[in-house]
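User: Can you help me understand a structure? I only have the sequence.
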Amino acid sequence: MIVVLWVHSNVFANFRLSEAHLHRLQQSFPGATFLRCETQEQFLEALPRADVVCSFRFKAEWFSRAPRLRRLISPTAGRDWFPEELSPGVKFEFSTFHGRIMAETVVAMMLSHARGLLRAYSLQRDEAWPNQTLEPGLRLLKGSRVTVLGFGHIGSHIGRLVKCFGAVITGLRRSPGARPDYFAAGDQLLPAENLDELLPQTDHLVLCLPANPETTGIANARRLSLLPRNAGIYNVGRGNVLDEQTLADLLAVRPLCEAYLDVFREEPLPAESPLRNLSNCLILPHISANAPEYIDLFIDELIQRLASE
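Assistant: Let's start by predicting it. Here is the structure, written out as tokens:
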């Protein structure tokens, strides 16, 4: 088995496969050959030998260069940078570890909203001691009602960590399936069509949806208006689910409502976006899954995948 790995970001140091990672793979599979590429040129040169490819992206025209290819494995959580149609006999696999990192990002966002940290930061230059201004928005994460729309690998990890704070979790997905082992008596796993009836009782709405025609605009003006006036909105899935102008309009008239956004329809978010001028909106540059452990977790999962074949 020859595995070609082009897992090297020119932007993020945490997204680069190291010699230590390569050594670990080689020790786990002494009979296999692992080729580490750092450039597209190296990758394309190695493709004719590849039985398995691990890469952040792959173009349709590259299949003709890889006659032996049978598995295409992405360190990402989706197939945004991969062709919809695969070459015959090739299986595509995305990774599922991201929720372990992203859950900490979302919990940080929720605590910021519940304990007034974003509001305090926005007021620290304007009010000498804004304790009375902050008080109406303060509450506990414990006992709060968290709705996770898109309760897959990432959403489930988020729910697990939020549950440690004593929140009440409702997970929504197309096919509910089995209840997670960490759910308590008040927690629910429901079909996505139950969203509208849950929104008026939702303190924290977490969006973990992939980008596809079904999810585009799902968090529309009507649905956002159903949320309580002090709700927290968190999008760590894909930017197509929210209409950003609609969200900005809502935040402008609901000062106790806050949005924490890691993904957008256009990235980088344009400088003229109305979201940039709101004190109750925190913008992250699509970085909620970034951590030094990223490639370590990918290698853990890759070893399991290769061993299962």
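Now, to help you interpret it: The chain has a mean pLDDT of 97. The longest strand covers residues 168-173. Let me know which part you'd like to focus on.
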